[in-house]
Design brief:
Helices cover about 35% and strands about 25% of the residues. The protein is built from nine helices and ten strands. The structure holds adenosine-5'-triphosphate.
C-alpha cells in the first residue's frame, strides 16, 4: 500500500547542537493506522513530529505526503504551500497552545474552517456538529478557561477533524490529564482512526502506545525499534518491550 507519509534521511541539526536532533530517519506511515512515537526525553520525538508535519524545516531529507492533489515533499514546499497543507490536510492535537483562550469552544473549531474560506455560519454549524459528536453539546459558548483539560482536548480533537484532515499529529495529548480522562481522549483519537484517519502520537505513556497499532522508539535522533518492522521480520515485540 502506498504510504500516506514517507520520510527518508530525515535529519535535523539545530544551530549550536552538538549532535543532530534527528539523524537520517526513514519512516513510512500507512494510511488508516495509529503510530505511537516513544523515547526518552530529548530523543527527538517532537522534532520528528514537527518535521513530518511541516512545522519545522529539516536540514536534510524528504517527507513525502500523499496529499489530495498528489505527492508533495513537505520538507521543501514553500512557506505558503506548507501553511495551506497544515491548514487543510493535517490536524494537530498538542498538550497546549493551539487553542485560542479568547475564543469560545465553537469559535476555536469554526476558525479552522473559516481560515479555509468557509463562511462563518457554515463553519459554526459544522463546528457545533463536531462538538456534539465529541460530547461537548451545551459547552459551545464556553471559553478555554471555562473548560477542563479533557474538555479542551476534545475541542482540539474537533478542530483537528473539522477540516477533513486525513492525518492527525498529537504531541503528548494526554500528558496533563488524569488516567480516566486520558483514556477518554485516546478513545476519541482512536475513533478518528476507526473512521479512516491516520494518527501519529508522541507519548511517554506506555498505555497510550499499547493501544496504538504500531510503536516507533527513538534514541538520540534515530529509530531504534519499530513494532511494524519487528512484525514484518517475524518477531512480535510489544510496545512495553521496545520502549525499554
Ligand atoms: N529549538 C531548539 N533549538 C536547539 N535545540 C533544540 C531545539 N528543540 C529541541 N532541541 C534539542 O533537540 C533534541 C531533541 O529534542 P526534542 O524536543 O525533539 O526531544 P523529545 O524527545 O521530544 O523530548 P521530550 O520528551 O523532553 O519532549 C534535544 O537535545 C533538544 O535539546
Amino acid at each position: 500500500m502506498t504510504p500516506l507519509l514517507s520520510a527518508r534521511g530525515l535529519t535535523m541539526q539545530y544551530p549550536g547542537g552538538a549532535t543532530p536532533a534527528l539523524d537520517a530517519v526513514d519512516l513510512d506511515i500507512a494510511p488508516g493506522t495509529s503510530v505511537a512515537v516513544m523515547g526518552a526525553s530529548g530523543s527527538g520525538k517532537t522534532t520528528l513530529l514537527h518535521c513530518l508535519a511541516g512545522i519545522l524545516r529539516p536540514t536534510a531529507g524528504s517527507v513525502t505526503f500523499a496529499s489530495g492533489s498528489g505527492p508533495v515533499d513537505v520538507a521543501t514546499l514553500g512557506d505558503d504551500a506548507r501553511a495551506r497543507l497544515r491548514r487543510e490536510e493535517l490536524g494537530f492535537v498538542f498538550q497546549q497552545g493551539l487553542l485560542l483562550g479568547e475564543l469560545t469552544a465553537l469559535e476555536n473549531v469554526a476558525v479552522a474552517r473559516m481560515l479555509g474560506g468557509v463562511p462563518r455560519a457554515q463553519a459554526e454549524a459544522e463546528a457545533a456538529q463536531w462538538l456534539t459528536h465529541l460530547g461537548l453539546a451545551g459547552m459551545e459558548q464556553r471559553r478555554l478557561g471555562e473548560l477542563s483539560g479533557g474538555q479542551a482536548q476534545r475541542v482540539a480533537i474537533a478542530r483537528a477533524q473539522v477540516t477533513g484532515a486525513r492525518l492527525i499529529f498529537a504531541d503528548e495529548p494526554t500528558g496533563a490529564l488524569d488516567s480516566t480522562t486520558s483514556e477518554e481522549v485516546l478513545d476519541l483519537l482512536l475513533a478518528a482512526v476507526a473512521a479512516g484517519r491516520t494518527l501519529v502520537v508522541v507519548t511517554h505513556d506506555a498505555d497510550v502506545a499499547r493501544r496504538c497499532a504500531r510503536t516507533v522508539v527513538l534514541r538520540d535522533g534515530r529509530v531504534v525499534s519499530d513494532t511494524a518492522l519487528a512484525a514484518a521480520a517475524g518477531g512480535a515485540a510489544t510496545p512495553g518491550e521496545v520502549a525499554r
